[in-house]
Specification:
- By secondary structure, the chain is α/β, with parallel strands linked by helices.
- The protein has two domains: about 140 residues, Rossmann fold (3-Layer(aba) Sandwich), CATH 3.40.50.12500; about 100 residues, 3-Layer(aba) Sandwich (Rossmann fold).
- The protein is about 45% helix and about 15% strand.
- Strand 1, helix 1 and strand 2 form a beta-alpha-beta unit.
- Helix 1 packs across helix 8.
- The longest helix has 20 residues.
- The chain is globular.
- It binds [(4R)-2,5-dioxoimidazolidin-4-yl]acetic acid.
- [(4R)-2,5-dioxoimidazolidin-4-yl]acetic acid binds next to loops.
- This is Allantoin racemase.
- Keywords: Isomerase.
- GO terms for molecular function: allantoin racemase activity.
Amino acid sequence: MRILIVNPNTTASMTATIARAASAVAAGPTEILAATSSMGPASIEGYYDEALAVPGLLAEIAHGERNGADAAVIACFDDTGLDAARALATIPAIGICEAALVTAAFIAQRFTVVTTMERSRIPLEGLVQRYGMHGKAKVRAADIPVLSLEDPTSGAASKLRSEIARALSEDRSEAIVLGCAGMADLVSELSHEFGVPVIDGVAAAVKQAEALVALGLSTSKRGAYAYPLAKPYIGALASFAPAVLAL
Ligand code: 5HY
């Protein structure tokens, strides 16, 4: 099976980190197709970046489905454009936040998401509510800009470690969820270091995608995720009119 992983920010080096994490857990026959959005913000830090990352993400999902992907993973912890992707595509579309939270809930009753910045923490609290995890999950920010994760000299990894240590002692968390796709390469060292399960959403989403494809399930086209209605879009978004993108 072919799993498309879209990084909805435009930083290709982060896509490479994401692709490595995905390939490391993919089953033998699974092919990972990694794509970087071709338009929009370099990193997604808050609501404005998120909104403007959605068109590029949708273009990659449409392209991937047309070219035979069996499932799509949105590799941003804000689950950027997830509902729109599900409306656009028939193949299952999985967000790394939802996949990580569901996975964590299987193995721990109380866990903490450690994300990048305060402006990201607040939207993630909204996702925790949306996914019904507010009785189990707390969200913390380590005060690290997303792209500092790409720079080993930035001190980001040590700030992340300090926040994980605080989560374990102050929240009494039983597991840690990494709240940014750019943290995917740290998962195994952090789980060894802290002695609790550490969940990376990229890996969790790949395994969820494999499960859905193996079960022969695709996105329901009845109701919320029905295909968008054909109509003109104008201006810079003219090429996104559903008649053009429809698969
Ligand atoms: C992510 N931003 O996973 C999120 C994390 C965040 O560009 N990739 C991003 O800080 O919201």
